[in-house]
Design a protein that fits this description.
By secondary structure, the protein is of the alpha+beta class. The chain is built from 6 helices and 9 strands. It has one domain. The chain is about 40% helix and about 25% strand. Strand 1 and strand 2 form a beta hairpin. Helix 1 crosses helix 2, helix 2 runs antiparallel to helix 3 and helix 5 packs across helix 6.
């Protein structure tokens, strides 16, 4: 997928004027790209628009206007975009009660080991590859950036409308969720760019 460039990012004034409509569009887009995986996990598949929104929001919140600092943000967020043959997602482990946050996160230590989280399309399973630095041997983050290398086999299965699911099996947490057709179409767009 083509990386974002500085000329695609609006300055703070332009962004404020267009923010409400852009935000509405991205919320709609994310609704097709968001998958609940059991009661504690949500994945949002990222693309250029979801990432551009995150860059714009970060610049807005932090009031960043210096060109080199804007480029730094673009570079950081471009890491979320899928590369050729991949789909990429942000994984959220969602715990709402403060007293339960650490025990729940501790129960997910090791989630980033191969095969714990998979995307299946047709007869093929694709393990999640976690970005480094979001967990240690004894700690895990509540937010992870992951990729699934679907390649041509996964793309062909999605294009043919074969069943696709996300599944997680780790310790006492197990969940499987089918991808809705609109989500599969979104992922196909990611694989074709």
């Amino acid at each position: 997928m083509k990386l974002l460039t500085a000329d695609e990012i609006q300055n703070l004034h332009e962004y404020e004027l267009s923010r409400a409509e852009f935000r509405r569009q991205v919320i709609d887009l994310k609704s097709r790209r968001r998958i609940a995986l059991g009661p504690l996990m949500t994945l949002v598949f990222e693309n250029r628009e979801t990432v551009r929104f995150q860059v714009q929001e970060m610049l807005r919140i932090e009031r960043i206007v210096a060109p080199e600092k804007i480029q730094d943000e673009i570079d950081v967020y471009n890491e979320l975009l899928p590369r050729e043959g991949e789909v990429a997602a942000t994984l959220f482990i969602e715990v709402t009660e403060a007293v339960k946050v650490q025990p729940v996160l501790d129960s997910f230590v090791g989630l980033d080991e191969p095969g714990r989280l998979t995307l299946t399309a047709g007869n093929d399973s694709f393990p999640a590859r976690f970005a480094p630095g979001q967990s240690r041997e004894d700690r895990i983050s509540a937010v992870h950036y992951i990729r699934f290398a679907l390649g041509e086999a996964g793309r062909a299965s999605l294009a043919a409308g074969e069943p696709a699911t996300l599944s997680v099996r780790h310790g006492g947490y197990s969940a499987e969720t089918p991808l809705y057709p609109e989500t599969a179409r979104e992922l196909l767009r990611d694989l074709e760019v």
